[in-house]
Write a structure and sequence with these properties.
The chain is an alpha/beta fold and 377 residues long. The protein folds into two domains: 247 residues, Aminopeptidase (3-Layer(aba) Sandwich), CATH 3.40.630.10; 122 residues, 2-Layer Sandwich (Alpha-Beta Plaits). Helices cover 32% and strands 24% of the residues. Helix 3 crosses helix 9 and helix 4 runs parallel beside helix 8. The longest helix has 19 residues. The radius of gyration is 23 Å and the shape is elongated. The protein starts with a helix and ends with a helix. It binds zinc ion. Zinc ion binds next to helix 3.
Length: 377
């Protein structure tokens, strides 16, 4: 049986960038699970070459615990790596590879914890889930969760092993991503009254985004987050063809990172109303606001059974919240599972060159998972 470092080396060698297939990693994980006495329950995906995997150990009845992680990683394009990002390389006490922290370290720990566990002692099931396309906006896992929900699947709780430096995280914000599309009319810039300037419409919409930020900052706040309010942000803007042409199109990519429980439809309605007003006041232009992605926030009670299990297993009484999103909100919303986030490594090392995790972090995760699984005996 490989140890967790060896297992991480095996998983890191599959270049499962979100744009590419994750099939080889999933087949490898499924084999490891079968060899360890587990049963592959679901191997499903809604796209060619992309798979979710769900497997279970122990009895088929009773409220078990779900351990889950995403199998995809972000690209390495344009990053200056000191070693091959798809070959786990130890340097100065650090294990470098794409996904080492985010989040193949946890996937490796899931597989070896299941392999170590005495399956015959389980009185309730241990479930493992591997998802795909998390890095594209938590896209892949939705299909699996919908199927499980339709079958009435339930469990005592779920742990998503995103890198939290081993901290027990009970909440994160949700994220709504969208596009503000401003349509104008082209004309020679020497006679701008004949056209409608889409970039100017976009400028007005940027002002609306800023005004909305000011408004939400006067409302709900949660000081557990570094930025304690819902945030609105414009990340990309594209418009215009040449300086002497009145631009007929401009788009703003924006996001709303919202506190759990925030009514994003009300915020969107305000943006859409503003767009309609600005379009109507223009010389024949229009503004529409389209949603491109949305995943919910997460808010799990400190008193929840899974929170208490995770706190005991990690030997702490501190819980926290994180700024970045995870699939946890979807587990909670779709399956009604009490869900926490807890995994090895750091999000600060993720998505960058020379991403790494340490042997100590992996060993701590091994001990944590052994304790969690022991609650199922
Ligand atoms: Zn991740």
């Amino acid at each position: 049986m490989p140890n967790t470092v060896e297992m991480l080396a095996a998983l890191a060698a599959f270049p499962t960038i979100s744009a590419d297939s994750n099939e080889s990693l999933i087949r490898f994980a499924a084999q490891s699970i079968t060899d360890s006495g587990g049963h592959v329950q679901k191997l499903v995906g809604s796209e060619p070459g992309k798979f979710n995997l769900m497997a279970s150990f122990g009895p088929a009845v009773g409220a078990g615990i779900v351990l889950s992680g995403h199998s995809d990683v972000v690209p390495v394009t344009g990053q200056a790596w000191q070693s091959n990002p798809f070959a786990l390389t130890e340097r100065d006490g650090r294990l470098h590879a794409r996904g080492a922290s985010d989040m193949k370290g946890f996937l490796a720990a899931m597989l070896t914890a299941a392999a170590r566990c005495e399956v015959a002692k389980l009185t309730r099931p241990l479930h493992l889930i591997f998802s795909y396309d998390e890095e594209l906006g938590c896209l892949g896992v939705r299909d699996l969760l919908a199927r499980l929900a339709a079958e009435g699947f339930t469990a005592a709780g779920a742990i998503i092993g995103e890198p939290t430096e081993g901290r027990v995280i009970t909440g994160h914000k949700g994220k709504l991503a969208g596009c503000i599309c401003c349509r104008g009319r082209a004309a020679h810039s020497a006679n701008p009254a004949l056209g409608c300037n889409a970039i100017m419409l976009a400028g007005e919409m940027l002002g609306e985004l800023r005004a909305l930020q000011t408004a939400v900052a006067g409302g709900a706040r949660d000081d557990a987050y570094p930025f304690p309010f819902t945030s609105l942000h414009a990340g990309r803007i594209k418009g215009g063809v040449a300086l002497n042409i009145v631009p007929d199109y401009c788009e703003i990519e924006f996001e709303i990172r919202h506190l759990p429980g925030t009514d994003t439809s009300a915020l969107l309605a305000r943006l859409r109303d503003a767009g309609a007003r600005i379009g109507a006041a223009s010389n024949g232009g229009s503004v529409t606001v389209d949603i491109t992605n949305h995943y919910p926030g997460l808010e799990t009670a400190r008193g929840a059974a899974i929170t208490q299990i995770a706190l005991r297993a990690s030997g702490t009484d501190q819980t926290g919240k994180i700024g970045f999103g995870t699939e946890g909100g979807l587990f909670s919303e779709t399956l009604g599972l009490e869900t926490i986030i807890c995994g090895p490594g750091s999000i600060d090392r993720a998505h960058k060159a020379d991403e790494y995790i340490t042997r100590d972090e992996l060993a701590a995760c091994d001990a944590f998972l052994d304790q969690v699984i022991a609650t199922l005996f």
